[in-house]
Amino acid sequence: MLPLYQVLTPEGELAQDIHGSLDEATMIKMYENMVTVRMFDRKSINLQRQGRMGTYAPFEGQEASQVGSAMALAPGDWLFPTYRDHAAAIVHGQSMARVFLYWMGHMEGSLSPKDLHIMPPCVPIATQLVHAVGTAWASKLKNEQQVSLAYFGDGATSEGDFHEALNFAGVFQTPTIFFCQNNGYAISVPFSQQSASKTIAQRGAAYDIPGVRIDGNDIFAVWMTMKEAKERALAGKGPTLIEAITFRYGAHTTADDPKKYRDQEQVAEQWRRERDPIARLRTYLERSGLWNEQKENELTATAGAKIDAALAEAESYPKSRPEDMFQHVYAEPTWMASEQKNELVQPAKKEDIPA
Amino acid sequence: MKRKLTMVQAITEAMDQKMAEDSRIMLLGEDVGMNGGVFRATEDLLNKYGANRVVDTPLSEAGIIGAAIGLAMNGLIPVVEIQFLAFIYPGFEQIVSHAARMRYRTRGQYHVPLVIRTPYGAGIRGPELHSESVETFFAHVPGLKVVAPSNPYDAKGLLVSAMEDPDPVIFLEPTKLYRAFKEEVPEELYRVPIGKAKVVRQGTDLSIFAWGAMLRVAEDAAKQMEREQGVSCEVIDLRTIYPLDRDAIVQSVKKTGRALVVHEAHKTAGMGAEIISIINDEALIYLKAPVKRVTGFDVPVPQFSIEDDYLPTPARVMNGIMETLTF
Ligand SMILES: Cc1ncc(C[n+]2csc(CCOP(=O)(O)OP(=O)(O)O)c2C)c(N)n1
């Protein structure tokens, strides 16, 4: 089995010297981001339970993977999230209000700031990986110093698109970073039943792409691995496959009941206690004199206020109008759709039926 | 004994009873085992029939459907679950190039007795791509049968027929109806024939053709028209989308002289066009007005804040009825 790359141990100690590669401000930002997105995640689950939001896909437990990888990007880099990677999207500049809107079933929830290449959450499994090859390929052809980062789960590695993407990226040496969050499950199917290969990282070998297996709850390892992958990509040395070992504490979505297929509470409890990405960074920061209770209180207060403001913005967003569904299907509406729109907006009047 | 089941319970029972009776039947899909399917359609079947007959597969629709084709060619009867209709596309190639054509390509030497079950349709406040109804894709491909029940009784009987059918059947289960209501479902194994429509409401002024979740919308509109306007609508549940029950369509139009098709699939090139074409071919001189369609629009099914505006409603159907009657 490929070794697991770790920098910050679960006990909050450094497993290697990071002097010169990671500054204190970045570490603090990492921590703040992780705490903020965890609060966002919990808030979202509550909103769903209160009926203020639709089905939602939680990520708690995977903060280090998403935050650490997205923080390694530059503003122009391309980000291809799945339905579970809103933490990464938020860190890369997506507004929290938009993320709320998306889960509230609004068409505009997928919009992102123009100058940031944040794609809408991808719902079909693995299909976005091939796009990330394409955008990266274009960056290379246009000589733009940009990478494309695609997120996916362990289940996604069973789809044909995963293999086709890796193959293309290998052949065309595209600056693509394939970032797998191996959280051990694809809904109910454990990784051992998903794949006979022991690791996902080792699959890179089949396409002659470097495959790295890292502790996905160790934000330093995530960030350093990403940095290296980025440098390789930007130096024209092609793609990287990263397998981040992590765990999602909650259900697959708010519509799912994991009690049926895994010992959810017990395993989640154990991960929380032994490997939590936020707790270990906090331990490290506190020991280094960079964090304390007071800062923690300030952080949760500001983050809470930000989240509340985003929610207020989302909830006061104008209601979608029925005719909005006809927008943006084509550059110019077709006559068929235009007629249908009129029919929807001004239905034919009921006339009396002739005797 | 009489008991009432939801549609999803009726579907489970059909598989359970056929599995007990015929050891060639096996279930394949994502999360169908331990989890009992994300809609619980295969609940407890793993415990009952074991991991060789109820298989949690890797997340690969091409793998599931492709392997099922091989299983079917080699003596088994796979019943595949695809989690949502819009996730069938990675396996589309396998369905249209292989499942549909195997009998033809091998000149009858091999055939593919395969059932592909999948929830479909809007109105469930699902996320993006959980609400599509693209039955036309499959109806367009020779070699496939396409079925869509609208109630628990038919769901059980049609699924039993599908599992006994020597050809591949795409079995579309209206998600909105899985648990919408209960109905008396006989305990014994019975069959509802594929390819046969059902008149669910007799009428004389106009024929409405519908299937799946739209059947209830059509019925509601018919009831209201009767009550408010004294208009008598005949409502026909087509139940099978391919092959269509031409006789039932033509017979009804000959009786009423007016027709309306209701489907939630997009209008253009939807099955409504095909049904109207049959009416033109077989009953044109009986028509007193052009046949109308009330359908979903030519737009991607929108996210759920305006999903209901995409779907035909009884009000839209009633408008359609009026237009036809006042032509
Ligand atoms: C092509 C396709 N098939 C099936 C699904 C239904 N589905 C949604 S999420 C999921 C499991 C995905 O597991 P994984 O890739 O490990 O990601 P995770 O949800 O664990 O982050 C499945 C089967 C889908 N969205 N797309």
TrEMBL record, chain A:
Keyword Oxidoreductase in annotation: yes
Record-annotated Dehydrogenase E1 component domain positions: 32-322
Keywords: Oxidoreductase, Pyruvate, Thiamine pyrophosphate
Co-factor requirement: thiamine diphosphate
Catalysed transformations (reactions): N(6)-[(R)-lipoyl]-L-lysyl-[protein] + pyruvate + H(+) = N(6)-[(R)-S(8)-acetyldihydrolipoyl]-L-lysyl-[protein] + CO2
Signal sequence annotation: none
Pfam family, one: E1_dh
E.C. number(s) listed in UniProt: 1.2.4.1
Transmembrane segments: none
PANTHER family: 2-OXOISOVALERATE DEHYDROGENASE SUBUNIT ALPHA, MITOCHONDRIAL (PTHR43380:SF1)
UniProt xrefs under NCBIfam families: PDH_E1_alph_x
Subunit field text: Heterodimer of an alpha and a beta chain.
Protein purpose: The pyruvate dehydrogenase complex catalyzes the overall conversion of pyruvate to acetyl-CoA and CO(2). It contains multiple copies of three enzymatic components: pyruvate dehydrogenase (E1), dihydrolipoamide acetyltransferase (E2) and lipoamide dehydrogenase (E3).
Protein name: Pyruvate dehydrogenase E1 component subunit alpha
Protein species of origin: Brevibacillus brevis (Bacillus brevis)
Origin organism lineage: Bacteria, Bacillati, Bacillota, Bacilli, Bacillales
Gene: pdhA
UniProtKB/TrEMBL annotation, chain B:
EC numbers for this chain: 1.2.4.-
Xref: InterPro entries: THDP-binding (IPR029061), Transketo_C/PFOR_II (IPR009014), Transketolase-like_Pyr-bd (IPR005475), Transketolase_C (IPR033248)
Matches recorded under Gene3D superfamilies: 3.40.50.920, 3.40.50.970
Annotated GO MF terms: oxidoreductase activity
Required co-factors: thiamine diphosphate
Annotated ranges, domain Transketolase-like pyrimidine-binding: 5-180
Keyword Zinc-finger attributed: no
Enzyme class: oxidoreductase
Keyword terms: Oxidoreductase, Thiamine pyrophosphate
Keyword Transcription regulation: no
The name this protein goes by in its record: Alpha-ketoacid dehydrogenase subunit beta
Protein's organism: Brevibacillus brevis
